[in-house]
Amino acid sequence: MQDYLVCGGWLKANVPRIKAYKNIENYQYTKTISDAKHMSRPYANSVLTQKEVIKYGKMTKDPFGYVFSTMGSVNGKVKLWRLGVNIGEKLIWHWGHGF
Amino acid sequence: MALGSWFLIREKDKQGKTCNMYFTIEDPKYCKLIPPDSAFYLADDSSLLYNGLQGDFSVLLGGNWRFELIVDSQTGLCTHMQSFLKKLEVTAADLDLPASIKNDLHFVGQKPLEPGCGCHYHPFNNMAFWDEKKKILCYGDPCSKGEAVEFTPKTIAIVKDAQLKSMYLVLDCVDREISFS
Predict the structure, then answer these.
(1) Which residue of A15, B43, B78, B108 has the smallest Cβ count within 10 Å?
(2) Residue B128 C-alpha, separation from nearest chain A C-alpha, in angstroms
(3) Do B116 and A93 lie within an 8 Å CB cutoff?
(4) Coil, strand, or helix at residue B177?
(5) A49 and A73 Cβ atoms separated by less than 8 Å
(6) What pTM did the predictor assign?
């Protein structure tokens, strides 16, 4: 087993990231993004992609929660992926690439 | 490089980015096909949705995820607005709907519009105004002047010099209580 060190400061600052990473599959989508048309967008319903974005993305505070954003490849092009979540309400309010 | 030159380049860069994204108003070709009873409705989670034509490209006005203009990626036709009202910061205002004409509104992006994708449209005032009496919600700058286009029932866009300035949403058909808390 490989040992590694995670300092307390990092853990404290990343509590929302850890909570979102562990529970994202149980979060609800707002109706604005859960309609069939929106969900037919490429990779829209991928929990794996969402976890990758949470894990590697930059975390910023939003008035309605947190936004995780990172560059990633989709259909052979590099796009900005953004995931907006409200951890208290277990809600995903924004999810997409390129915007 | 002199500081002045640097600012000049930055300013040109900003203008270039702005000018590459614009709106055009065209004769009513598609908007005639929209069911006249198309209107907004409020879901139980306070998502403000629309039951008219649908699109597959999102333009986030002012970069705000709540101000989502849906566009058909093939034609660039703006189909409707959708939003999420919970915790939306609104300023109470006495709003009047501008006199408008029914026309098609088209969005032209920096790159060809890709289905399922989206972009941020930044030359837009990132604010919301609410007239509770008239049930009018305005995104952007309510004082802005320009061409008023009703591109789909209950939605009026104000466009000036090919830039979108504000968007009026008429919510008088919404049967639920409209709350922003």
Answers:
(1) A15
(2) 15
(3) no
(4) coil
(5) no
(6) 0.86
